[in-house]
Amino acid sequence: MRRCNFLFPASLLLLGCFFGTFLSFFLLEKFGRRSLMGFVSGGLFAASHALVFFAYSVPMIYVGRLLGGLGMGVQVCAAASYISDVTKRDVRGFAGFVGAQLSASLGAGVTMAVGAAAAPQWWALALVGGVATLPAAAAALMWAPESPRWLLSRGREYSAAKSLEWLRGRSEEDVDR
Q1: Within this chain, do residues 136 and 171 fall inside the same structural domain, yes or no?
Q2: 125 with 13: CB under 8 angstroms?
Q3: Which residue from 7, 66, 130, 145 could staple onto 16, CB 3.0 to 4.6 Å apart?
Q4: Of all residues in the chain, what percent are helix, strand and coil, respectively (each to 5)?
Q5: For residue 45, how many other CB atoms are within 10 A of its CB?
Q6: Segment 72-86, tens digit of pLDDT
């Protein structure tokens, strides 16, 4: 197999990311930011890494990379929406840049660079990536409250107030910002 063939799975990641961003448009309002970050993105990442790790054919690797891209596209949109919903005005732009855009871009770049270097042992990279995504998905589901804005859009005022209280404290000044 020629070395340039390893670029195609990396391209599938970006293609999946492109479609994942469009998919997230519909899923964000239906399921909420927290659920999307934990269940959907975590599930897509886990399926992606499992497919690549256990692959016995090249098409399995391709499907795994495409699923990983879908997860990445959904994750970036869900994280950006969540961050803009829960942060205070004075840090919202910086938090969105670092928390969603920069971290996703750096993660994809590092993964592609390490993947190119470890090309003969692609399964090891898939194992490391799969194990690394599980704690992030679990943290999103266990500790982070749902977005107060999303809860309010569902008519769940009490849950939104509790979410804001957990995120910003009890003072009215903290909640209003």
Answers
A1: no
A2: no
A3: 66
A4: 90, 0, 10
A5: 24
A6: 888 888 888 888 888
Are 150 and 140 in a shared domain?
no
Please name the residues in contact with 141: beta carbons below 8 A apart, sequence gap of 6 or more.
34, 35, 38, 39, 42
pLDDT of 4-55, one tens digit each?
A: 455 566 688 788 889 998 988 889 888 888 888 877 777 888 888 888 888 8
Tokens matching residue 57: 């054919």
Place of tokens 């799975």: 9
Q: Where are the alpha helices (DSSP H) in 36-147?
A: 42-53, 58-86, 92-96, 103-117, 122-142
CA atoms within 13 A on the CB side of 146: 21
One domain, residues 166 and 86: no
Cα–Cα dist 53/131, whole Å: 11
Crossing angle between the packed helical segments 58-86 and 42-53, to the nearest 10 degrees: 160
From residue 28, how far is each of 2, 18, 116, 128 by CA, in Å? 41, 16, 33, 28
pTM of model > 0.70 = yes
> Residue 2: what pLDDT?
46
- Supply 109's token pair: 């770049």
